[in-house]
């Protein structure tokens, strides 16, 4: 799995153009069994005027969860030309706890767009084990 994520990152970094967004940040899993802080990397690609597809890979510094991988479809509620954006998302999550589990996820991304960077705050609800994950970071 590590090699797949590495190859995916190399491909996206080598193909970066205006329609791709690359980001990084920190995440916190608030579930009682899996409480942990982590780091994450994000890649998003525009697929239409209103929709993006995104991939989020995270590594946790905890003993009960080690990594997560999310793929999501994001909808731009207010358009792309505004400074503050609310973006609902739905997708699938893969997490490495005692086993590798998969689950559906729902979330909302709040973004503030500046001249060079886009800041994001993303609460996500992962159905499996009723996990709430909070992502905070920046798109470059």
Which properties best describe this structure?
140 residues; mainly beta; Porin; eight-stranded antiparallel beta barrel; 1 helix; 8 strands
The side-by-side strand order for the widest beta sheet comes to 1-2-3-4-5-6-7-8
Task: Note poorly predicted spans.
Answer: none
- Identify the CATH architecture: Beta Barrel
What portion of residues belong to β-strands?
A: over 45%
β-strand number: 8
Structure class: mainly beta
The shape is: globular
The CA-CA distance between the termini, in Å, is 26 Å
How would you sum up the major sheet?
A: 8 strands, antiparallel, barrel
Compute the number of helices. Answer: 1
Q: Could you walk me through the main structural features you see in this protein, from its secondary elements to its overall organization?
A:
With about 140 residues, the protein is mostly beta strands. It has one domain (about 25-140): Porin, CATH 2.40.160.20. Helix content is about 10%, strand content about 60%. The protein is built from 1 helix and 8 strands, in the order αββββββββ. Strands 1-2-3-4-5-6-7-8 form an 8-stranded antiparallel barrel. The longest helix has 13 residues, at about 1-15. The mean pLDDT is about 90.
């Amino acid at each position: 799995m590590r090699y797949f994520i590495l190859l995916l990152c190399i491909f996206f970094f080598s193909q970066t153009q205006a329609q791709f967004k690359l980001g990084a940040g920190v995440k916190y899993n608030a579930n009682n069994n899996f409480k942990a802080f982590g780091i994450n990397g994000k890649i998003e690609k525009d697929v239409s005027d209103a929709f993006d597809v995104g991939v989020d890979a995270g590594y946790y510094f905890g003993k009960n969860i080690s990594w997560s991988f999310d793929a999501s479809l994001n909808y731009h509620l207010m358009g792309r030309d505004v400074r503050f954006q609310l973006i609902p998302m739905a997708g699938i999550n893969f997490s490495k706890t005692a086993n590798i589990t998969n689950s559906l996820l729902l979330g909302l991304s709040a973004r503030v767009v500046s001249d060079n960077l886009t800041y994001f705050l993303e609460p996500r609800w992962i159905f499996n084990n009723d996990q709430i994950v909070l992502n905070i970071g920046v798109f470059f």
